[in-house]
Write a structure and sequence with these properties.
Oligomer: single chain
Strand order of the largest sheet: 1-2-3-4-5-6-7-8-9-10-11
Mean pLDDT: 82
Strand content: 5-15%
Structural class: alpha/beta
Number of strands: 13
Low-confidence stretches: 1-63, 469-510
Largest sheet: 11 strands, parallel
Number of helices: 22
Distance between the termini: 62 Å
Length: about 500
Protein backbone atom coordinates (compact mmCIF):
# COMPACT_ATOMS: atom_id res chain seq x y z
CA UNK A 1 0.00 0.00 0.00
CA UNK A 2 1.83 3.09 -1.23
CA UNK A 3 0.02 5.91 0.51
CA UNK A 4 3.11 8.03 1.21
CA UNK A 5 3.78 9.12 -2.38
CA UNK A 6 2.44 12.62 -3.24
CA UNK A 7 1.40 13.76 -6.69
CA UNK A 8 4.28 14.86 -8.89
CA UNK A 9 4.03 18.50 -10.02
CA UNK A 10 2.76 18.91 -13.57
CA UNK A 11 5.48 21.31 -14.75
CA UNK A 12 8.81 22.53 -13.51
CA UNK A 13 7.41 26.04 -13.14
CA UNK A 14 4.91 25.06 -10.47
CA UNK A 15 5.94 25.98 -6.93
CA UNK A 16 6.86 23.04 -4.77
CA UNK A 17 4.51 22.34 -1.90
CA UNK A 18 4.83 20.21 1.17
CA UNK A 19 3.32 16.75 0.44
CA UNK A 20 0.15 16.00 2.38
CA UNK A 21 0.49 13.30 5.00
CA UNK A 22 -1.11 10.03 3.95
CA UNK A 23 -0.61 8.00 7.11
CA UNK A 24 -3.98 8.87 8.58
CA UNK A 25 -7.39 7.79 7.44
CA UNK A 26 -8.52 11.35 7.97
CA UNK A 27 -6.75 12.17 4.73
CA UNK A 28 -9.62 10.51 2.88
CA UNK A 29 -11.64 13.68 2.62
CA UNK A 30 -8.64 15.88 1.94
CA UNK A 31 -7.83 13.67 -1.01
CA UNK A 32 -11.43 13.77 -2.16
CA UNK A 33 -11.37 17.55 -2.22
CA UNK A 34 -8.08 17.80 -4.16
CA UNK A 35 -8.21 19.59 -7.50
CA UNK A 36 -9.05 17.27 -10.36
CA UNK A 37 -8.11 19.70 -13.10
CA UNK A 38 -4.35 19.83 -12.54
CA UNK A 39 -3.35 16.55 -14.22
CA UNK A 40 -3.59 16.87 -18.02
CA UNK A 41 -0.90 14.55 -19.32
CA UNK A 42 -2.02 10.93 -19.44
CA UNK A 43 0.07 8.44 -17.52
CA UNK A 44 0.52 4.91 -18.81
CA UNK A 45 -2.43 3.44 -16.86
CA UNK A 46 -4.72 6.33 -17.79
CA UNK A 47 -3.99 5.99 -21.49
CA UNK A 48 -5.07 2.35 -21.27
CA UNK A 49 -8.57 3.59 -20.39
CA UNK A 50 -9.06 5.59 -23.57
CA UNK A 51 -11.17 2.83 -25.11
CA UNK A 52 -13.63 3.13 -22.21
CA UNK A 53 -14.75 6.66 -23.04
CA UNK A 54 -18.50 6.78 -23.49
CA UNK A 55 -20.23 8.77 -26.19
CA UNK A 56 -22.05 11.31 -24.05
CA UNK A 57 -19.30 12.37 -21.64
CA UNK A 58 -20.83 15.83 -21.25
CA UNK A 59 -24.04 14.32 -19.91
CA UNK A 60 -22.53 11.78 -17.53
CA UNK A 61 -19.43 13.49 -16.24
CA UNK A 62 -20.37 17.12 -15.83
CA UNK A 63 -19.74 16.77 -12.09
CA UNK A 64 -16.14 15.55 -12.63
CA UNK A 65 -16.78 12.15 -11.06
CA UNK A 66 -14.47 10.36 -13.48
CA UNK A 67 -11.63 12.80 -12.94
CA UNK A 68 -12.06 12.64 -9.18
CA UNK A 69 -11.77 8.85 -9.19
CA UNK A 70 -8.72 8.87 -11.49
CA UNK A 71 -7.05 11.42 -9.21
CA UNK A 72 -7.87 9.27 -6.17
CA UNK A 73 -6.33 6.21 -7.82
CA UNK A 74 -3.12 8.13 -8.47
CA UNK A 75 -3.06 9.41 -4.89
CA UNK A 76 -3.27 5.92 -3.39
CA UNK A 77 -1.27 4.20 -6.13
CA UNK A 78 -3.74 1.76 -7.73
CA UNK A 79 -4.91 1.03 -11.26
CA UNK A 80 -8.45 2.38 -11.86
CA UNK A 81 -11.30 -0.09 -12.31
CA UNK A 82 -12.72 0.41 -15.79
CA UNK A 83 -16.16 -0.94 -14.85
CA UNK A 84 -16.48 1.64 -12.08
CA UNK A 85 -15.51 4.45 -14.46
CA UNK A 86 -18.21 3.40 -16.90
CA UNK A 87 -20.92 2.99 -14.28
CA UNK A 88 -20.28 5.55 -11.55
CA UNK A 89 -23.28 7.60 -12.69
CA UNK A 90 -25.64 4.59 -12.45
CA UNK A 91 -27.79 3.80 -9.42
CA UNK A 92 -26.51 0.19 -9.18
CA UNK A 93 -22.81 -0.72 -9.29
CA UNK A 94 -21.52 -4.29 -8.96
CA UNK A 95 -17.83 -4.52 -8.06
CA UNK A 96 -17.94 -8.03 -6.60
CA UNK A 97 -14.79 -10.14 -7.16
CA UNK A 98 -12.71 -7.25 -8.54
CA UNK A 99 -9.70 -7.77 -6.29
CA UNK A 100 -9.80 -4.21 -4.96
CA UNK A 101 -7.99 -4.81 -1.70
CA UNK A 102 -7.99 -2.11 1.00
CA UNK A 103 -6.17 0.42 -1.21
CA UNK A 104 -8.49 0.03 -4.19
CA UNK A 105 -11.43 0.32 -1.83
CA UNK A 106 -9.98 3.55 -0.49
CA UNK A 107 -9.92 5.04 -4.00
CA UNK A 108 -13.55 3.99 -4.52
CA UNK A 109 -14.50 5.56 -1.18
CA UNK A 110 -12.81 8.84 -2.11
CA UNK A 111 -14.84 9.02 -5.31
CA UNK A 112 -18.07 8.17 -3.48
CA UNK A 113 -17.83 10.98 -0.94
CA UNK A 114 -19.50 13.38 -3.39
CA UNK A 115 -21.30 10.84 -5.58
CA UNK A 116 -25.07 11.41 -5.77
CA UNK A 117 -26.00 8.65 -8.22
CA UNK A 118 -25.06 5.29 -6.72
CA UNK A 119 -27.74 3.86 -4.45
CA UNK A 120 -26.63 0.21 -4.38
CA UNK A 121 -22.97 -0.82 -4.19
CA UNK A 122 -21.76 -4.43 -4.34
CA UNK A 123 -18.22 -4.99 -3.00
CA UNK A 124 -18.29 -8.68 -2.02
CA UNK A 125 -15.14 -10.79 -2.18
CA UNK A 126 -12.56 -8.02 -2.58
CA UNK A 127 -10.26 -8.69 0.41
CA UNK A 128 -10.90 -5.19 1.68
CA UNK A 129 -10.10 -6.18 5.32
CA UNK A 130 -10.58 -3.80 8.22
CA UNK A 131 -8.64 -1.03 6.43
CA UNK A 132 -11.09 -0.94 3.55
CA UNK A 133 -13.99 -1.07 6.00
CA UNK A 134 -12.64 2.06 7.70
CA UNK A 135 -12.47 3.92 4.39
CA UNK A 136 -16.05 2.95 3.57
CA UNK A 137 -17.32 3.98 6.98
CA UNK A 138 -15.69 7.41 6.67
CA UNK A 139 -17.26 7.80 3.24
CA UNK A 140 -20.69 6.86 4.58
CA UNK A 141 -20.49 9.70 7.09
CA UNK A 142 -20.51 12.15 4.16
CA UNK A 143 -22.48 10.34 1.45
CA UNK A 144 -26.24 10.68 1.97
CA UNK A 145 -27.36 8.77 -1.14
CA UNK A 146 -25.98 5.23 -0.75
CA UNK A 147 -28.66 2.94 0.70
CA UNK A 148 -27.55 -0.66 -0.03
CA UNK A 149 -24.01 -1.90 0.66
CA UNK A 150 -22.72 -5.45 0.24
CA UNK A 151 -19.29 -6.09 1.80
CA UNK A 152 -19.66 -9.84 2.30
CA UNK A 153 -16.69 -12.23 2.14
CA UNK A 154 -14.06 -9.58 2.81
CA UNK A 155 -12.15 -10.94 5.82
CA UNK A 156 -13.23 -8.09 8.06
CA UNK A 157 -12.79 -10.05 11.29
CA UNK A 158 -13.03 -8.53 14.75
CA UNK A 159 -11.39 -5.21 13.85
CA UNK A 160 -13.75 -4.73 10.91
CA UNK A 161 -16.71 -5.57 13.13
CA UNK A 162 -15.50 -2.99 15.64
CA UNK A 163 -15.25 -0.29 12.96
CA UNK A 164 -18.72 -1.06 11.62
CA UNK A 165 -20.20 -1.17 15.11
CA UNK A 166 -18.92 2.32 15.90
CA UNK A 167 -20.45 3.50 12.64
CA UNK A 168 -23.82 1.89 13.39
CA UNK A 169 -23.99 3.50 16.81
CA UNK A 170 -23.95 6.98 15.28
CA UNK A 171 -27.27 6.54 13.40
CA UNK A 172 -26.17 9.20 10.93
CA UNK A 173 -26.02 7.32 7.62
CA UNK A 174 -28.57 6.91 4.84
CA UNK A 175 -27.70 3.20 4.67
CA UNK A 176 -30.72 0.87 4.89
CA UNK A 177 -29.41 -2.50 3.72
CA UNK A 178 -26.09 -3.93 4.94
CA UNK A 179 -24.71 -7.33 3.92
CA UNK A 180 -21.90 -8.71 6.10
CA UNK A 181 -22.03 -12.40 5.20
CA UNK A 182 -18.91 -14.56 5.46
CA UNK A 183 -16.59 -12.16 7.29
CA UNK A 184 -15.20 -14.49 9.98
CA UNK A 185 -17.27 -12.83 12.70
CA UNK A 186 -17.24 -14.78 15.97
CA UNK A 187 -19.07 -14.24 19.24
CA UNK A 188 -16.95 -11.26 20.27
CA UNK A 189 -17.89 -9.58 16.97
CA UNK A 190 -21.54 -10.47 17.58
CA UNK A 191 -21.35 -8.69 20.92
CA UNK A 192 -20.09 -5.45 19.37
CA UNK A 193 -22.48 -5.51 16.43
CA UNK A 194 -25.49 -6.32 18.60
CA UNK A 195 -24.66 -3.56 21.09
CA UNK A 196 -24.65 -1.09 18.21
CA UNK A 197 -27.81 -2.50 16.62
CA UNK A 198 -29.69 -2.35 19.90
CA UNK A 199 -29.81 1.42 19.51
CA UNK A 200 -29.70 1.63 15.71
CA UNK A 201 -33.05 2.38 14.04
CA UNK A 202 -31.89 3.09 10.48
CA UNK A 203 -30.73 -0.33 9.21
CA UNK A 204 -33.75 -2.21 7.84
CA UNK A 205 -32.10 -5.28 6.28
CA UNK A 206 -29.03 -7.04 7.71
CA UNK A 207 -27.24 -10.15 6.44
CA UNK A 208 -24.95 -11.89 8.95
CA UNK A 209 -25.08 -15.33 7.35
CA UNK A 210 -22.08 -17.65 6.89
CA UNK A 211 -20.31 -16.36 10.00
CA UNK A 212 -19.23 -18.21 13.14
CA UNK A 213 -21.72 -17.15 15.80
CA UNK A 214 -22.29 -19.86 18.39
CA UNK A 215 -24.67 -20.02 21.37
CA UNK A 216 -23.03 -17.03 23.05
CA UNK A 217 -23.58 -15.07 19.84
CA UNK A 218 -27.21 -16.19 19.92
CA UNK A 219 -27.57 -14.64 23.35
CA UNK A 220 -26.23 -11.33 22.05
CA UNK A 221 -28.58 -11.45 19.07
CA UNK A 222 -31.54 -12.19 21.34
CA UNK A 223 -30.75 -9.21 23.56
CA UNK A 224 -30.47 -7.00 20.48
CA UNK A 225 -33.77 -8.16 19.00
CA UNK A 226 -35.56 -7.35 22.24
CA UNK A 227 -34.44 -3.72 21.94
CA UNK A 228 -34.11 -3.02 18.22
CA UNK A 229 -36.92 -1.04 16.58
CA UNK A 230 -35.58 -0.77 13.02
CA UNK A 231 -34.70 -4.16 11.56
CA UNK A 232 -37.24 -5.66 9.20
CA UNK A 233 -35.13 -8.45 7.67
CA UNK A 234 -32.35 -10.48 9.35
CA UNK A 235 -30.36 -13.35 7.82
CA UNK A 236 -28.55 -15.56 10.34
CA UNK A 237 -28.32 -18.69 8.21
CA UNK A 238 -25.20 -20.87 8.17
CA UNK A 239 -24.03 -20.00 11.69
CA UNK A 240 -23.59 -22.29 14.71
CA UNK A 241 -26.64 -21.68 16.90
CA UNK A 242 -27.74 -24.67 18.90
CA UNK A 243 -30.21 -25.16 21.73
CA UNK A 244 -28.97 -22.49 24.17
CA UNK A 245 -28.44 -19.90 21.48
CA UNK A 246 -31.76 -20.74 19.84
CA UNK A 247 -33.70 -20.30 23.08
CA UNK A 248 -31.97 -16.99 23.85
CA UNK A 249 -32.61 -15.72 20.34
CA UNK A 250 -36.28 -16.67 20.57
CA UNK A 251 -36.61 -14.91 23.92
CA UNK A 252 -35.60 -11.71 22.17
CA UNK A 253 -37.99 -12.35 19.30
CA UNK A 254 -40.92 -12.53 21.70
CA UNK A 255 -40.44 -8.83 22.50
CA UNK A 256 -39.60 -7.67 18.97
CA UNK A 257 -42.31 -5.78 17.08
CA UNK A 258 -40.65 -4.80 13.77
CA UNK A 259 -38.84 -7.83 12.31
CA UNK A 260 -40.76 -9.31 9.37
CA UNK A 261 -38.29 -11.69 7.70
CA UNK A 262 -35.96 -14.06 9.57
CA UNK A 263 -33.68 -16.69 8.03
CA UNK A 264 -32.29 -19.19 10.56
CA UNK A 265 -31.63 -22.03 8.11
CA UNK A 266 -28.58 -24.27 8.38
CA UNK A 267 -28.18 -24.00 12.15
CA UNK A 268 -28.87 -26.53 14.91
CA UNK A 269 -32.06 -25.50 16.70
CA UNK A 270 -33.33 -29.04 17.23
CA UNK A 271 -36.67 -29.76 18.84
CA UNK A 272 -35.88 -27.60 21.88
CA UNK A 273 -35.28 -24.62 19.62
CA UNK A 274 -38.47 -25.47 17.72
CA UNK A 275 -40.36 -25.42 21.00
CA UNK A 276 -39.07 -21.90 21.66
CA UNK A 277 -40.07 -20.89 18.12
CA UNK A 278 -43.57 -22.22 18.74
CA UNK A 279 -43.86 -19.91 21.74
CA UNK A 280 -42.62 -16.99 19.63
CA UNK A 281 -45.31 -17.65 17.01
CA UNK A 282 -47.98 -17.57 19.70
CA UNK A 283 -46.93 -14.06 20.77
CA UNK A 284 -45.20 -12.39 17.82
CA UNK A 285 -47.42 -10.63 15.29
CA UNK A 286 -44.79 -9.06 13.05
CA UNK A 287 -42.97 -12.04 11.48
CA UNK A 288 -44.14 -12.72 7.93
CA UNK A 289 -41.34 -15.01 6.71
CA UNK A 290 -39.51 -17.66 8.76
CA UNK A 291 -36.90 -20.09 7.40
CA UNK A 292 -35.71 -22.87 9.72
CA UNK A 293 -34.63 -25.30 7.03
CA UNK A 294 -31.99 -27.86 8.01
CA UNK A 295 -32.19 -27.37 11.78
CA UNK A 296 -32.58 -30.99 12.91
CA UNK A 297 -36.28 -30.46 13.67
CA UNK A 298 -38.27 -33.72 13.74
CA UNK A 299 -42.01 -34.41 14.05
CA UNK A 300 -41.84 -33.50 17.74
CA UNK A 301 -40.48 -30.05 16.93
CA UNK A 302 -42.96 -29.60 14.08
CA UNK A 303 -45.80 -30.29 16.53
CA UNK A 304 -44.49 -27.51 18.82
CA UNK A 305 -44.30 -25.08 15.92
CA UNK A 306 -47.83 -26.11 14.93
CA UNK A 307 -49.12 -25.07 18.35
CA UNK A 308 -47.90 -21.56 17.61
CA UNK A 309 -49.40 -21.59 14.12
CA UNK A 310 -52.84 -22.31 15.59
CA UNK A 311 -52.82 -18.79 17.04
CA UNK A 312 -50.44 -16.79 14.83
CA UNK A 313 -52.07 -14.20 12.55
CA UNK A 314 -49.06 -12.77 10.67
CA UNK A 315 -46.81 -15.51 9.27
CA UNK A 316 -47.17 -16.10 5.53
CA UNK A 317 -44.13 -18.22 4.64
CA UNK A 318 -42.66 -21.09 6.66
CA UNK A 319 -39.71 -23.08 5.29
CA UNK A 320 -38.89 -26.39 6.98
CA UNK A 321 -36.98 -27.99 4.11
CA UNK A 322 -34.28 -30.58 4.92
CA UNK A 323 -35.51 -31.34 8.42
CA UNK A 324 -36.11 -34.98 9.43
CA UNK A 325 -39.90 -34.74 9.13
CA UNK A 326 -42.29 -37.48 8.11
CA UNK A 327 -45.93 -37.32 7.07
CA UNK A 328 -47.05 -37.06 10.71
CA UNK A 329 -45.13 -33.80 11.15
CA UNK A 330 -46.46 -32.52 7.83
CA UNK A 331 -50.02 -33.35 8.89
CA UNK A 332 -49.69 -31.49 12.19
CA UNK A 333 -48.59 -28.37 10.29
CA UNK A 334 -51.52 -28.22 7.88
CA UNK A 335 -54.08 -29.11 10.56
CA UNK A 336 -52.84 -26.19 12.66
CA UNK A 337 -53.66 -23.88 9.74
CA UNK A 338 -57.09 -25.46 9.47
CA UNK A 339 -57.79 -24.70 13.13
CA UNK A 340 -56.73 -21.06 12.75
CA UNK A 341 -59.42 -19.18 10.83
CA UNK A 342 -57.29 -16.00 10.97
CA UNK A 343 -54.15 -17.61 9.56
CA UNK A 344 -52.46 -15.73 6.70
CA UNK A 345 -50.19 -18.63 5.77
CA UNK A 346 -49.45 -18.77 2.05
CA UNK A 347 -46.48 -21.14 1.71
CA UNK A 348 -45.17 -24.10 3.70
CA UNK A 349 -42.04 -25.74 2.32
CA UNK A 350 -41.55 -29.37 3.36
CA UNK A 351 -40.24 -30.38 -0.05
CA UNK A 352 -38.15 -33.30 1.23
CA UNK A 353 -41.21 -35.05 2.74
CA UNK A 354 -42.96 -37.91 0.97
CA UNK A 355 -46.72 -37.72 1.68
CA UNK A 356 -49.73 -39.99 1.14
CA UNK A 357 -52.85 -39.52 -0.91
CA UNK A 358 -54.74 -39.12 2.36
CA UNK A 359 -52.52 -36.15 3.16
CA UNK A 360 -53.39 -34.48 -0.16
CA UNK A 361 -57.10 -34.99 0.52
CA UNK A 362 -56.72 -33.38 3.94
CA UNK A 363 -54.76 -30.55 2.32
CA UNK A 364 -57.60 -30.02 -0.17
CA UNK A 365 -59.93 -29.50 2.77
CA UNK A 366 -57.55 -27.04 4.41
CA UNK A 367 -57.17 -25.11 1.15
CA UNK A 368 -60.95 -24.86 0.85
CA UNK A 369 -60.80 -22.77 4.03
CA UNK A 370 -57.50 -21.07 3.17
CA UNK A 371 -57.34 -20.87 -0.64
CA UNK A 372 -54.17 -18.75 -0.47
CA UNK A 373 -52.21 -21.70 0.99
CA UNK A 374 -49.68 -23.76 -0.97
CA UNK A 375 -47.71 -26.65 0.55
CA UNK A 376 -44.66 -27.94 -1.29
CA UNK A 377 -43.76 -31.58 -0.62
CA UNK A 378 -41.56 -34.12 -2.37
CA UNK A 379 -44.12 -36.48 -3.91
CA UNK A 380 -47.25 -38.52 -3.23
CA UNK A 381 -46.77 -42.19 -2.42
CA UNK A 382 -48.41 -44.45 -5.00
CA UNK A 383 -49.03 -41.72 -7.60
CA UNK A 384 -48.14 -42.96 -11.06
CA UNK A 385 -46.25 -40.78 -13.51
CA UNK A 386 -49.34 -40.71 -15.73
CA UNK A 387 -51.55 -39.43 -12.91
CA UNK A 388 -49.02 -36.77 -11.99
CA UNK A 389 -48.79 -35.68 -15.64
CA UNK A 390 -52.55 -35.04 -15.69
CA UNK A 391 -52.21 -32.78 -12.66
CA UNK A 392 -49.53 -30.74 -14.46
CA UNK A 393 -51.40 -30.05 -17.71
CA UNK A 394 -50.09 -26.77 -19.11
CA UNK A 395 -52.17 -24.09 -17.31
CA UNK A 396 -51.42 -21.41 -19.91
CA UNK A 397 -52.86 -23.62 -22.62
CA UNK A 398 -56.12 -23.91 -20.64
CA UNK A 399 -56.30 -20.15 -20.13
CA UNK A 400 -55.53 -19.45 -23.79
CA UNK A 401 -58.33 -21.80 -24.85
CA UNK A 402 -60.76 -19.98 -22.56
CA UNK A 403 -59.60 -16.60 -23.88
CA UNK A 404 -60.10 -17.73 -27.48
CA UNK A 405 -63.61 -18.98 -26.78
CA UNK A 406 -64.63 -15.70 -25.17
CA UNK A 407 -62.68 -13.48 -27.59
CA UNK A 408 -60.57 -11.83 -24.91
CA UNK A 409 -56.85 -11.69 -24.27
CA UNK A 410 -55.00 -13.68 -21.62
CA UNK A 411 -54.08 -10.38 -20.00
CA UNK A 412 -57.78 -9.50 -19.77
CA UNK A 413 -58.45 -12.83 -18.06
CA UNK A 414 -55.85 -12.21 -15.37
CA UNK A 415 -56.86 -8.59 -14.94
CA UNK A 416 -60.44 -9.67 -14.28
CA UNK A 417 -59.23 -11.61 -11.23
CA UNK A 418 -57.89 -8.50 -9.55
CA UNK A 419 -60.51 -6.37 -7.73
CA UNK A 420 -58.19 -3.39 -8.18
CA UNK A 421 -58.10 -3.92 -11.94
CA UNK A 422 -54.30 -3.59 -12.05
CA UNK A 423 -51.71 -5.84 -13.67
CA UNK A 424 -49.99 -6.82 -10.41
CA UNK A 425 -51.14 -8.83 -7.40
CA UNK A 426 -49.53 -10.34 -4.34
CA UNK A 427 -48.74 -14.03 -4.68
CA UNK A 428 -51.22 -14.94 -1.98
CA UNK A 429 -54.07 -12.93 -3.49
CA UNK A 430 -53.30 -14.32 -6.95
CA UNK A 431 -53.29 -17.92 -5.71
CA UNK A 432 -56.56 -17.35 -3.85
CA UNK A 433 -58.18 -15.77 -6.91
CA UNK A 434 -57.05 -18.58 -9.22
CA UNK A 435 -58.32 -21.29 -6.88
CA UNK A 436 -61.67 -19.59 -6.32
CA UNK A 437 -62.39 -18.59 -9.93
CA UNK A 438 -64.60 -21.01 -11.90
CA UNK A 439 -63.80 -19.88 -15.45
CA UNK A 440 -60.76 -22.13 -15.85
CA UNK A 441 -60.73 -24.71 -13.03
CA UNK A 442 -57.17 -25.55 -11.96
CA UNK A 443 -55.38 -27.70 -9.42
CA UNK A 444 -52.95 -26.32 -6.86
CA UNK A 445 -50.11 -27.76 -8.94
CA UNK A 446 -51.15 -25.81 -12.01
CA UNK A 447 -51.56 -22.59 -10.04
CA UNK A 448 -48.07 -23.11 -8.59
CA UNK A 449 -46.70 -23.46 -12.11
CA UNK A 450 -48.38 -20.21 -13.15
CA UNK A 451 -46.90 -18.38 -10.19
CA UNK A 452 -43.42 -19.61 -11.10
CA UNK A 453 -43.84 -17.96 -14.49
CA UNK A 454 -45.33 -14.72 -13.23
CA UNK A 455 -43.67 -14.19 -9.83
CA UNK A 456 -41.18 -11.31 -9.78
CA UNK A 457 -39.44 -12.89 -6.76
CA UNK A 458 -40.72 -10.02 -4.67
CA UNK A 459 -43.94 -11.61 -3.46
CA UNK A 460 -45.83 -10.08 -6.39
CA UNK A 461 -47.02 -11.50 -9.71
CA UNK A 462 -46.97 -9.26 -12.75
CA UNK A 463 -48.90 -10.10 -15.89
CA UNK A 464 -48.56 -6.77 -17.70
CA UNK A 465 -46.22 -8.32 -20.28
CA UNK A 466 -49.02 -10.70 -21.33
CA UNK A 467 -50.52 -7.93 -23.47
CA UNK A 468 -47.60 -8.25 -25.91
CA UNK A 469 -47.74 -9.34 -29.58
CA UNK A 470 -47.06 -13.05 -29.03
CA UNK A 471 -50.06 -15.17 -30.14
CA UNK A 472 -49.84 -17.55 -27.18
CA UNK A 473 -50.17 -14.68 -24.73
CA UNK A 474 -53.37 -13.33 -26.18
CA UNK A 475 -51.89 -10.40 -28.05
CA UNK A 476 -53.31 -8.71 -31.11
CA UNK A 477 -50.96 -9.98 -33.83
CA UNK A 478 -51.86 -13.66 -33.43
CA UNK A 479 -48.40 -14.72 -34.59
CA UNK A 480 -45.30 -15.80 -32.76
CA UNK A 481 -42.20 -13.76 -33.38
CA UNK A 482 -38.80 -15.49 -33.75
CA UNK A 483 -37.12 -15.40 -30.34
CA UNK A 484 -40.43 -15.40 -28.47
CA UNK A 485 -39.95 -19.00 -27.35
CA UNK A 486 -36.85 -18.36 -25.32
CA UNK A 487 -37.88 -14.89 -24.18
CA UNK A 488 -41.18 -15.54 -22.43
CA UNK A 489 -40.91 -19.20 -21.45
CA UNK A 490 -44.69 -19.63 -21.12
CA UNK A 491 -45.35 -21.48 -24.35
CA UNK A 492 -41.95 -23.11 -24.70
CA UNK A 493 -42.95 -26.32 -22.95
CA UNK A 494 -45.60 -27.21 -25.56
CA UNK A 495 -43.43 -26.78 -28.65
CA UNK A 496 -39.88 -27.30 -27.43
CA UNK A 497 -39.49 -30.37 -29.65
CA UNK A 498 -40.38 -28.48 -32.83
CA UNK A 499 -37.60 -27.37 -35.14
CA UNK A 500 -36.94 -23.67 -35.32
CA UNK A 501 -38.36 -23.28 -38.78
CA UNK A 502 -41.37 -21.51 -40.23
CA UNK A 503 -43.55 -24.39 -39.05
CA UNK A 504 -42.26 -23.93 -35.50
CA UNK A 505 -44.19 -20.68 -35.33
CA UNK A 506 -47.50 -22.19 -36.37
CA UNK A 507 -50.07 -21.74 -33.57
CA UNK A 508 -51.49 -25.17 -34.30
CA UNK A 509 -48.34 -26.77 -32.92
CA UNK A 510 -48.76 -25.30 -29.45
Amino acid sequence: MDNEEPLEPETEDEPKTEPAAQDSDKALYCEAEASVAAEKEKSGWESSETDLEIEDTEKLFTTGQRELYLEACKLVGVVPVSYFIRNMEESYVNLNHHGLGPTGTRAIAIALVSNTSIVTLELADNHITEEGALSLVEMLQENSFLQDLNISDNELGFKGASTISEFLQRNTSSLLNLQLSGNNFRDESAELLCQALSANYRIKMLDLSHNEFSDKGGEHVGQMLALNIGLQSLDLSWNHFHIRGAVALCNGLRANVTLQKLDLSMNGFGNEGATALGEVLRLNNSLVYLDVSSNDISNEGAAKISKGLEINESLKVLRLYLNPLSMDGAMSLILSIKRNTKSKMEEIDISNVLVSEQFTKTLDGVCAIHPQLDVTYKAVQGFSAKKMALLWTNPMKLIQSYADQHQITVADFFKSLNPKGTMTMSVGDFRKAMIQQDKVPMSRYQVRELIKKLDEKTGMVNFSFLSGPCWCLGGALRIMKPGCIKNCGLCYGSIKTAKFSQDAFNPSLA
